[in-house]
Specification:
4 helices, globular, alpha+beta, two-stranded antiparallel ribbon, 5 strands, GMP Synthetase, Chain A, domain 3, 2 domains, about 180 residues, three-stranded antiparallel sheet
Length: about 180
């Protein structure tokens, strides 16, 4: 018997998540109820030059490799970007599965990107000065008796349309730099 059949796997989590989401939607029925400001702060302040990234009570470390004077003590910013898109897509799949009551046993999202930092060193390149050719490879595991191919296609369509960070990359956006 699989873990999910025993009530300890992802299917059980998805059921609980769906219940929580429905209760939250009933308690906060207006779009304005969901508006929030989120933030992250990054500081580099010691001899390692590592970037200490803090979000709420969480801290991550970012660093570069030796070509940029780093120590490889954490992922690079382009790697963090791939990771953030990967976790957002994974969460969007989980939201869809919970909201639509589609049982899945495993969601895996791998994001890759090409990157060329030559422009930071004033070296000419035909590549864009940003991570490019982003690709997300999605793998869903679900028992055939629990989720139909049509339901899995619905999950893919939901995530493709609604993943906030995938959409942020696809759509034009601005970042306002405020200097002190």
């Amino acid at each position: 018997m699989s873990e999910s059949a025993e009530g300890r796997g992802l299917r059980d989590y998805i059921r609980q998540k769906g219940q929580a989401m429905r209760a939250a939607a009933a308690a906060k029925p207006n779009a304005g109820d969901w508006h929030e400001v989120v933030s992250a702060t990054c500081v580099a302040d010691d001899a390692t030059g590592v970037r200490k990234l803090r979000m709420r009570d969480w801290q991550l470390t970012g660093d570069s490799g030796p070509d940029f004077g780093g120590w490889g003590l954490g992922p690079s910013s382009p790697e963090l970007l791939c990771g953030v898109i990967s976790t957002c897509l994974t969460h969007t799949y989980l939201i869809a599965a919970a909201w639509l009551a589609i049982p899945v046993d495993r969601v895996e999202v791998s994001v890759t990107s090409a990157n060329n930092d030559a422009h930071l060193l004033e070296i000419a390149s035909d590549d864009p000065p940003v991570p490019f050719n982003l690709q997300a490879r999605i793998s869903l595991d679900a028992d055939a008796d629990a989720a139909t191919p049509e339901q899995l296609a619905t999950l893919h369509a939901y995530a493709a349309e609604r993943c906030p960070l995938s959409n942020l990359i696809r759509e034009p956006n601005t970042i306002t730099l405020l200097t002190e």
